[in-house]
Amino acid sequence: MTSRRDFLATVGAAALAGCAPAAKTSLPPGELLGMSQALGHRLRDGGFPAPSETRKTGVLIIGGGISGLSAAWKLAKASVDDFLVLEMEAEPGGNSRAGQSPLVSYPWGAHYLPLPTRESTLVRELLAELNVLQGDPAVEKPRYEERYLCATPQERVYRNGLWEEGLLPHRGLDAAEREQQHRFHLRMEEFKNAKGRDGRRAFAIPMELSSRDIEWRQLDQIPLSQWLNDNGFTAPSLHWLANYATRDDYGTAHTQTSAWAGLHYFACRNGEAANASADTVLTAPDGNAWLMRGLAASASGRIVSGALVWRIEEGKQSVAVDVLFGAKNRALRGAANHLGSTRLHSATRLACDAGRTQKRGTGRRLCTLADGQSAPC
Ligand SMILES: Cc1cc2nc3c(=O)[nH]c(=O)nc-3n(C[C@H](O)[C@H](O)[C@H](O)COP(=O)(O)OP(=O)(O)OC[C@H]3O[C@@H](n4cnc5c(N)ncnc54)[C@H](O)[C@@H]3O)c2cc1C
Question: Where on the tree of life does the source sit, at the highest rank (predicted)?
Fold first, then answer.
């Protein structure tokens, strides 16, 4: 016969087993991909060999991600062929690189491009060049190659054990919350068409072309969470969505992100197509790698991979860039006369201070070297 003590012990153990996390399952085979840790540590640790040779080129682009390759594409289109792209990894592409399984290719990071807005003239130009935009890139609603148009449904959210269509949770909400969601949607549609007193769209892509009107810019003074509450958007589902959006685009919570930046996420995408709805995105099995390859083609023969830039010395009229070539440990110095006056963007990360720091977001340098000669390294 089971004693009371034994019974309670058995029930307690069963209950505990039910609460306990499932036995640790091992991860599926694979590896974490991304920028090389070894190179990052190399930059941090310093101790680079003194440059053993100096080469010169007209323009030096540091980093072969989408930014650097866009600069190369633009230069090539302007018939400037005296440039080099220095990329520390074995291949260019940065966050838009892709992998290949025996069955299908897949993106490592960036995986879609929203339909370009009317202001995104260069993106439209590139897409036309790649035959993804068919016909005149300047028309209001261009036609896009069907293979790149992502058919709906595009997004789902997993909540309370169920998948729901779209990003905004909608099951089991009361009428008041549904009303707020509807009102938020209408407000964002309104913002997509809003213009400042300078005639510019309030939230444009490229961001640079957004209105400078103080009425809109002052939204930079408060966090998105406050803007939501001030405008009667208190529903938890809306705050969840706003927080998801700012973390996705900026890596910060909606309590830490400016209302202007947060609203830009929702109101900037108003590109249209003749053969797709406005919220469609362009994508492919390899994510954005097709875009990267299209850009890289214009820099063919001028992309130097395995080239780690570890020091940039900027003088009044000159720039010197020190580079380490991978396993060979071959050091190189590019002596420079001028900083290019054109404001092209190169990599987002530059190695500064003898490789002890890696700065993000400061990579806007166009280096015009010495006598303007091109010299593949
Ligand atoms: C997970 C994830 C998903 C994303 N999804 C999308 C998406 O779907 N659509 C979208 O439009 N955007 C997306 N983004 C954002 C997008 O990827 C970036 O905005 C874009 O890749 C930035 O391009 P970049 O060239 O500036 O930087 P990167 O792609 O990071 O490229 C920088 C390049 O510089 C090189 N480099 C760095 N330091 C050095 C050095 N010292 N010397 C030499 N080379 C160096 C790197 O190896 C790299 O190739 C996503 C971002 C992430 C993280």
Answer: Bacteria
| Residue 107 beta carbon below 6 angstroms from any ligand 1 atom | no
Predicted TM-score of the model (pTM): 0.79
Ligand 1 atom nearest residue 94's Cα? 49
Q: How many residues comprise the chain? A: 377
Residue nearest atom 48 in ligand 1 by C-alpha distance: 94
Alpha-helical runs (H) found in the chain: 4-19, 37-45, 66-77, 121-129, 175-193, 214-217, 224-230, 236-250, 259-267, 289-298
State the burial class of residue 367 (Cβ atoms within 10 Å of its Cβ: 0-12, 13-18, 19+).
buried
Quickly count: other Cβ atoms within 10 Å of residue 186's Cβ.
10
Same domain, 270 and 147: yes
Q: Which of 282, 301, 331 is the last residue of a domain?
A: 282
Running along the chain, 377 residues long, what does each successive block of 10 average in pLDDT?
48 45 66 78 86 82 94 94 90 93 91 92 96 96 95 79 88 94 97 96 94 97 98 97 94 97 95 91 94 95 91 78 71 44 31 28 26 26
Show which of 247, 282, 317 is a domain's final residue.
282
Q: Are residues 138 and 277 in the same domain?
A: yes
